[in-house]
What does this fold into?
Amino acid sequence: MAANSDDFDNDITTPADNPIAPGQPVISEKVLADRELLRKAQAEGKTLGAYVKLSGPGWLQSAITLGGGSLAGSLFLGVLGGTSMLWLQIVAIILGVVMLSAISYVTLSTGRRPFEAINSEINPALGWGWLIATVMANMIFCMPQFSLCYDALDKNLSTLGGGDGLGGSAAAKWTVTAALLFAAGFIVLLNIKQGKAAKFFDRFLKALIGMVVICFFGVAILLFAKGEVNVGAVIAGMIPDFSQFLSPAGELRGLVDGLSPEGESFWRTKLMGTQRNVMIAAIATAVGINMTFLLPYSMLARGWDKPFRGLARFDLSTGMAIPFVLVTSCVVIAAAASFHNRIDDQLASTDPVVMQQSPTFKDVRNSLTARVDSTLGDAAATTSEEAKLAMVAALPEDEKRLASALVKRNAFQLSQTLAPLLGEGNAKLVFGLGVFGMGFSTIIILMLINGYAFREMFGRPDSQALFITGVLVAGMSGASWVWLWTDDATRFWLAIFASTFAAMLLPIAYVTFFLMMNSDRILGDERPTGGSRLVWNILMGLAVLGATAAAATAMYDKAIDQENPAAFPTVLTILIVYTIAVIAGFFVRRDTGSTSTTR
It folds into this structure.
């Protein structure tokens, strides 16, 4: 990807205030050297080498998007649709790269901190909502990453060579968690240093992402080599199939079509509700609300400005998109080979006693019992559990396969399933390292984002003390998983406030940057025009629609959640209060008279 020669025009040659470090020159010797490297590479037609050498913020995005959420989502896609849903990851990351590219374009074209620009030029409620949602997401979703790292050590890495694992004691959890917190904090603080420390941070993060890619890519290659995966099916799965929003995906479509009318109606309804939710979430949430905050501030921290716009797009495409597609696709392929349309012999048995010995029976029992209740109708209330179990056992095997497809699996179950193919030791090592790398890299980036966010929250973008405070707040919040995340009720409410608020704010953040990309007041002469503007708006519009659909789905899920009836009123209250704040924000927006600064 070649840099735009216009990016090098009208360069500032006199010092100006650094957006996140007032009093320090924006154009430091390091930035001038990087700019000269880009200029020389462009003149020689060898931009690739320069881009690779200078890349960085895109890898930060990769480190956070390849976390526990992506792992769980990819696993479920493979379980539900086999390899037929691989296209979702590609579409998801393309839309994510589009929005992040727009954010980088606005930031590098103006040189302004986005939080300040949104508050001054758009709406302070949007800016503060963006910031608060980012901090909440950092603090709360750091918890499951610590848990994921502990599980990788406990269930896989510490059991190599016949070990018994770390155990489930609180002392073991706190000890490991403290070590992870110290290590992650040390790595994050290297990022605020200059010279060799900052280079080590970049290289460490790239190595961590590389390890994750190698682990899961290696599993996929072995599956191909062993003939466990159909290459043609994988290629076909990369072609978008929007009919999957209306019909079951993969081999499950044939299973549903072959059932009795009553069975088809029941399972199609149950299956499609889950499948659509997973698809919408995959498309819309490859980029989280805190990722939209990280990108601009990580670029400004490096002194990047207008001449670096081409590098920013390259960095996102290679540092973020390629690792994401590789890892998530490999997880989908492995999950498809292990779980899609698979059932164990015990569950398939028509003997209730044998069926209940299945390791997955407790996970499918509610779905299969609901199927029996739908047949019994009013008689379900008076039918004994023993009789229902006999009816469940007598259900066709295809219906039991469909029930199994609705069970969420984790990486450690996948590791156990693939042990006969990889070898038990290799399976534990590969999945242990891969999962640990995903969790630990995400912890690092969540802490880093919180450091930037705390600076903005208190209006002191150059404060090292506030940066360290933000880092520690996110880290210590994540470390509290031993106490908070292991309690089901507490975890539920934490997830409600973080995930739902972030889901609601993501489309609003997208719309905000959509407006900024089309604003003459903010971008001035740098606003895209003609065909370029049309393409930007179409692609950004698709990303906004995807994020909006995810937010609506999250709201709908809470509305129909009968097990937690208090969830929807809580979420609705948050939405109403924030909507009022946004409306009021348009009336009280501070008119600072600031103008966009181009360099």
Remarks:
- The chain is about 75% helix and 0% strand.
- The first helix runs from residue 29 to 44.
